[in-house]
Design a protein that fits this description.
Chain A is of the alpha/beta class and about 300 residues long. Helices cover about 50% and strands about 5% of the residues of chain A. Classes of the chains: A alpha/beta (about 300), B mainly alpha (about 475).
Chain lengths: ~300, ~475
């Protein structure tokens, strides 16, 4: 038995040490690469947020601007992304942050701590402080191998090209000839606002805190922060739960964050995706030009 | 908990340490531990079904005692029938109730009558087909005076619920495994080390081979009506390796784990895809089940010693029942019948025992004749596997008809050519390693044993890395559904 345990220990020890050491060196390299400037020095304005921003702002139309929106990006992740960005980019002085009536709800917790965390959270792994990394690992302890693989794959991608990391995001909209459809909008509303058929998503303290942290971060860095609500179809907008609308309104009032509310902008049908919550490519062009004219840039 | 899960990776070392360092004072203590952790292991799936396994254990233990007490033939027969009734009743209720009900309703509607009824949609308890057969072997062997009943309930309950083989076999006969619970178990270094090798190989077969193939199989079978014949052939081939990797992988892990605790389980797979004929295939595939049916069904029916139609009848009975054991669906019955059809010519021409020796015994590679026999046998089993995997009969028929259509010459579809090539690579590697290990109990038993330690360990580390890289897909072991 002693010989067995000794041999097993020896067999396990060396590769474990090697793996830990390799992973440590690997993350060091990735952290170093991801802390480099990912945007050009000519960029002064950044758009950040989830898929609503990702699909709505065509940065090729705007001057000195870049869209860093990414699908499923909760405010929690946006905070760390923005923090990393502002630490290494002195040229940025304006940030448009995508916010919506769903932003402060538990809806996003599935991507931070829930079932879909193992797919989304590892993308932001290298931006997180140690404490948050540990939380991420803890919440995904039953999917440790998938989590580790995704973290490694993301790291390799960052090493190969720091500007192509998945966490960076970017304008991405190839949807043409679409229009809002009621059944899709109903499904989207259920998915985004309802935990079960009868129960709404509750509000999330962590997302609220993340938004406060973003506001504070921009204040500290002297960055102009503007909350941007992207357009939603009239049918969709009318069905958003009042509690969620009120919650966001209250927050905006209390925090004093500047906002541009385009959620009730009346666009033609073909500007929307079938879910009525995102814009088509045509809608993205429309809104970007509208914004350009609105801000004079 | 799955064998390829973090839960089991934590569970096993803890149990191992407790077994050899804390509870090693007596056999009884170790049996208590095994019983406790086995129930914990089973309860991890669904604690509600613990009562079923306990019930089956208590019934058969009691019947065993009564069989010892009663010498009267009629009474003994009634006791045996009671054991059969309880165990097969459990199986019938949980596994076959909805099947019989649906077919009963279909039969009545065929005659123009409508019956209002509702299926129970009963959840199938994991492992029920395995442990009920295991306890039945106990009572049947006592009835036949081949085994003395045990008075030690803990040993018996541990035998029934022994966690490595509880949910998917091997189905151990009481006369093989039960005595091991009454003897002192000594730790054997070589057996334990080889047990770890067997676990490693089992994990490779399950995680890398089976789960990789499963991605393609699920897609191809779920959308078979849109696929070319060539793609469907690939799907069937992948399924053949999926089910082999899955099931033999599980068996290897079960046997390897048992060896860590000083137990010896029977070999359940003996490199079946190297079989030269169907008879040999059935001597090598799921050996524990086929020997169970041989000993408790086929031989009592007369086996091959009867003449005429009874011989044919017995073959069909055993294969169809074996098929039906796998699941409550006509596809399993047809799968069994098809294997009976394959087997029958060999039986009737008395060629079913012509390949008892090891394949390519005295050479490294098979001869051309052996190779063509292997390929033919493999092709026949793959054809039968289509029924095994299909959702229903019409799906199976549609699948096979499309294979034998003009679209067989079309280029097969892969949603990722790169991944398909990698999967093929792993399958080839499996075949090579298993070929060179075919004379052993498992493929890694002697693989690189003569080589330098660095090379051997390097290969094991490589396997571990590959297993790690492929894990996380969470495909259930196929045989858990039985």
């Amino acid at each position: 038995m002693e010989k067995f345990l000794k041999n097993l220990w020896t067999f396990s020890l060396y590769p474990t040490i090697a793996c830990i050491a390799s992973f440590y060196i690997f993350t060091k390299i990735v952290n170093e690469k991801s802390s480099r400037s990912i945007v050009s020095k000519k960029v002064h304005t950044v758009f950040i947020g989830d898929s609503h921003i990702e699909q709505a702002i065509d940065d090729s139309i705007l001057k000195n601007s870049i869209n860093l929106g990414a699908s499923c990006e909760a405010l929690y992740f946006s905070y760390y992304k923005l923090k990393n960005l502002l630490e290494h980019n002195n040229s940025i002085y304006k940030v448009y942050l995508g916010i919506g009536y769903h932003s402060l709800s538990n809806y996003y917790n599935r991507f931070i701590y829930g079932d879909e965390s193992v797919i989304i959270a590892p993308i932001y792994y290298y931006l997180l402080p140690i404490k948050e990394k540990s939380k991420l690992v803890y919440h995904n302890r039953n999917k440790l191998t998938s989590l580790t693989k995704t973290i490694i794959k993301e790291g390799i991608q960052i090493i190969q090209n720091p500007k192509k990391g998945n966490y960076i995001g970017g304008f991405n909209n190839t949807f043409n000839k679409t229009k809002a459809q009621i059944s899709f909008m109903d499904d989207r509303l259920d998915y985004q606002y309802y935990q079960t058929k009868q129960t709404l998503f509750e509000f999330s303290k962590s997302n609220e805190l993340a938004l406060k942290n973003i506001i504070q971060l921009c204040k500290d860095k002297n960055i102009e922060l503007i909350g941007l609500l992207t357009p939603t179809h009239k049918y969709y907008f009318n069905k958003i739960p009042t509690s969620h609308k009120q919650k966001l309104k209250n927050f905006i009032q209390q925090s004093g964050i500047q906002t541009i509310d385009l959620s009730q902008l009346d666009l033609k049908e073909d500007n929307y995706l079938p879910d009525g919550d995102h814009l088509s490519k045509k809608g993205a062009t429309t809104i970007t030009i509208y914004l350009k004219n609105l801000t004079g840039k | 908990m799955l064998f390829n899960s973090l839960d089991f990776a934590i569970f096993l070392p803890i149990v191992f340490c407790l077994y050899w360092f804390v509870f090693n004072k007596s056999i009884r203590n170790q049996n208590y531990l095994i019983l406790f952790v086995s129930y914990l292991f089973y309860g991890w799936w669904d604690w509600r079904f613990l009562s079923l396994i306990l019930f089956s254990t208590i019934v058969d233990f009691s019947i065993g005692q009564k069989l010892l007490e009663h010498k009267n033939t009629k009474t003994r027969k009634h006791l045996l029938l009671l054991s059969l009734f309880v165990n097969i009743g459990l199986l019938g209720t949980f596994k076959y109730y909805d099947f019989f009900l649906d077919n009963f309703i279909t039969a009545f509607s065929f005659f123009g009558s409508e019956i209002q009824s509702s299926s129970l949609n009963i959840i199938l308890p994991v492992g029920i087909s395995f442990y009920t057969f295991q306890t039945l072997s106990y009572t049947i062997d006592i009835y036949k005076n081949k085994l003395s009943p045990t008075k030690d309930f803990v040993a018996f309950a541990s035998f029934v619920s022994f966690f490595p083989q509880l949910v998917a076999g091997p189905i151990e006969k009481a006369k093989n495994l039960l005595p091991q619970f009454k003897e002192k178990r000594s730790f054997n270094y070589n057996s334990a080390i080889d047990g770890l090798r067997q676990i490693l190989w089992g994990l490779f077969k399950k995680v890398v081979i089976a789960d990789s193939c499963a991605e393609y199989v699920n897609f191809i079978f779920n959308y078979s009506e849109y696929q070319h014949g060539s793609t469907l052939i690939i799907g069937a081939l992948f399924f053949a390796f999926q089910i082999y990797g899955d099931f033999s992988g599980y068996s290897d892990i079960a046997i390897g784990t048992s060896r860590l605790f000083g137990f010896k389980l029977m070999q359940n797979f003996n490199f079946p895809y190297f079989s030269r004929d169907i008879a040999e295939f059935w001597r090598r595939w799921h050996i524990s089940l086929s020997t169970w049916f041989r000993d408790y069904l086929y031989i009592p029916l007369g086996g091959s010693r009867v003449e005429g139609y009874k011989k044919i009848r017995n073959i069909f009975i055993i294969f169809i029942v074996s098929g039906f054991w796998h699941g409550a669906n006509w596809t399993f019955i047809v799968w069994g019948a098809l294997n009976a059809i394959y087997f029958l010519p060999l039986m009737l021409t008395k060629k079913n025992r012509q390949n008892l020796n090891e394949i390519s015994e005295n050479s490294i590679f098979p001869s051309l004749k052996e190779l063509s026999s292997i390929i033919l046998t493999f092709s026949l089993t793959v054809l039968a596997w289509i029924f095994f995997r299909a959702d229903n009969m019409s799906h199976a028929i549609q699948y096979i008809s499309e294979i034998f259509s003009a679209s067989i010459i079309e280029y097969p579809y892969f949603h990722s050519i790169r991944e398909a090539v990698v999967t093929f690579f792993w399958i080839i590697l499996l075949i090579i390693i298993e070929w060179f290990g075919r004379k052993n109990l498992h493929a890694l038993e002697s693989f690189l044993i003569q080589s330098n330690k660095i090379i051997r360990h390097g290969f094991y580390y490589l396997l571990i890395c590959v297993i790690f890289w492929y894990s996380g897909k969470d495909h259930q072991f196929i045989y858990f559904q039985f």
